């Protein structure tokens, strides 16, 4: 599968086209909109989430609730566009307009953003041309794409959920989810303001987010994604570019403001001996091959083991601050405070939703790379046959 997204933060709409989905896959806008709403939620979100309610329109590739096998096109309209038509319009400017009179031009790049380097790369003197596309607003349609991928995974017996494990050093007690299914975890997460499974830690996170907002500052954290039901042997040890963990890592780091990724025990492995890291292999007639532990996070040699895949991403504090950092005006070269756009004091809860969906896409894509089928029922049959094969291998 593959997809492209198009659109600017304050443009008329965000658009994506998905190619490679099997036919006969049930898809509805209602399910996608549920995930889009979750992305806009979470404690610490800014004023824009109050202005717009993201909803998707399926404009191609689906008929009567099922995919056709042709490309699927999704559109999310920006409700705030009506206030930006003159600023972000596609039509050329009139000859008699002074470029300096164009509203909301930006010449003071924000530290930590793509503003300055992006301006250098594409030759933009008005840095709004950079920030409009580099904005995390683009993740809206990536969540929509991931929601479609989750619909496919659900039909294959694969489920996925994300939750916040840490915000500004406040760590959740993740042992609270031991023995729980992804759906049980989801019920807890969706009822929590920080999308956290630990109510005590969540209350402290809320306080920290509120304090950061009052101070005009921002804070980051860690999110975890769990995938259950993944067949063993998906991915490859043969070629570096087909390793599943490498693809998942790339997906996690493609999210705005994400700077680190780990699987299973992650960086804790550096502080342990091999006997405390690797998972012993066991077999039973009922379950086939499993592991006594899951310290490696469901991945060995670039392939899925059949155990739950556990991947975490680190999100830095959002670089747009209401008490902006020192910058330089690219026109005058004089020192100034950086430009200020609408922003969140903490977007870690919302980012966990994005993480869930970009990982879902990579999992679904890896499945379709290994099990080729144009129709969903054929794909389901292939997956079932493969599960039986690996169980008795």
Automatic annotation (TrEMBL):
The UniProt record gives the binding positions of FMN as 133-135, 256-257, 301, 316-320, 342
**Which PROSITE patterns does this entry report, sorted A to Z?**
CHORISMATE_SYNTHASE_1, CHORISMATE_SYNTHASE_2, CHORISMATE_SYNTHASE_3
InterPro entries (alphabetical): Chorismate_synth (IPR000453), Chorismate_synth_AroC_sf (IPR035904), Chorismate_synthase_CS (IPR020541)
Q: Which GO terms describe its molecular function?
A: chorismate synthase activity
Q: What is its EC number?
A: 4.2.3.5
Report the pathway entry. Answer: Metabolic intermediate biosynthesis; chorismate biosynthesis; chorismate from D-erythrose 4-phosphate and phosphoenolpyruvate: step 7/7
Cofactor binding, per record = Reduced FMN (FMNH(2)).
The record's comment on protein family reads: Belongs to the chorismate synthase family.
Function, as annotated, reads: This reaction introduces a second double bond into the aromatic ring system.
**Description of how the protein assembles with itself and partners:** Homotetramer.
Protein name as it appears in the record: Chorismate synthase
Q: Which organism is it from?
A: Lysinibacillus boronitolerans JCM 21713 = 10a = NBRC 103108
């Amino acid at each position: 599968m593959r997809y492209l997204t198009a659109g600017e933060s304050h443009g008329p709409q965000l658009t994506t086209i998905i190619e490679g989905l099997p036919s006969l896959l049930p898809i509805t806008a209602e399910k996608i909109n549920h995930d889009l709403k979750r992305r806009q939620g979470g404690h610490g979100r800014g004023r824009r989430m109050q202005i717009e309610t993201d909803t998707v329109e399926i404009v191609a590739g689906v008929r009567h609730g099922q995919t056709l096998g042709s490309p699927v096109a999704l559109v999310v309209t920006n409700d705030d566009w009506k206030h930006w038509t003159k600023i972000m319009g596609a039509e050329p400017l009139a000859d008699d307009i002074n470029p300096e009179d164009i509203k909301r031009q930006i010449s003071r790049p924000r530290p930590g953003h793509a503003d300055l380097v992006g301006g250098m790369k594409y030759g933009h003197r008005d840095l709004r041309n950079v920030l409009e596309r580099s904005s995390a607003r683009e993740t809206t349609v990536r969540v929509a794409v991931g929601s479609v991928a989750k619909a496919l995974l659900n039909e294959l017996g694969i489920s996925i959920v994300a939750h916040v494990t840490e915000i500004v050093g406040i760590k959740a007690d993740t042992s609270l989810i031991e023995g729980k299914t992804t759906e049980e975890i989801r019920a807890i997460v969706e009822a929590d303001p920080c999308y956290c499974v630990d109510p005590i830690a969540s209350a402290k996170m809320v306080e920290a987010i509120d304090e950061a907002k009052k101070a005009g500052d921002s804070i980051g954290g860690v999110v975890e994604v769990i995938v259950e039901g993944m067949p063993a042997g998906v991915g490859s040890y043969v070629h570096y570019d087909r390793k599943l963990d490498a693809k998942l890592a790339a997906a996690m780091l493609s999210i705005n403001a994400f700077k680190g990724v780990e699987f299973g025990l992650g960086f804790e492995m550096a502080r342990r001996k091999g006997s405390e890291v690797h998972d012993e292999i066991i077999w039973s007639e009922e379950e086939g091959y499993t592991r006594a532990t899951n310290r490696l996070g469901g991945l060995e040699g670039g392939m899925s083991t059949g155990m739950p895949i556990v991947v975490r991403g680190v999100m830095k504090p959002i670089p747009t601050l209401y008490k902006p950092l020192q910058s330089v005006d690219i026109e005058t070269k004089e020192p100034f405070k950086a430009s200020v756009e609408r922003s969140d004091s903490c977007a870690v809860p919302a980012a966990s939703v994005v993480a869930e969906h970009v990982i879902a896409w990579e999992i679904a894509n890896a499945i379709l790379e290994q099990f080729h089928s144009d129709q969903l029922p054929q794909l389901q049959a292939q997956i079932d046959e493969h599960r039986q094969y690996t169980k008795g291998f």
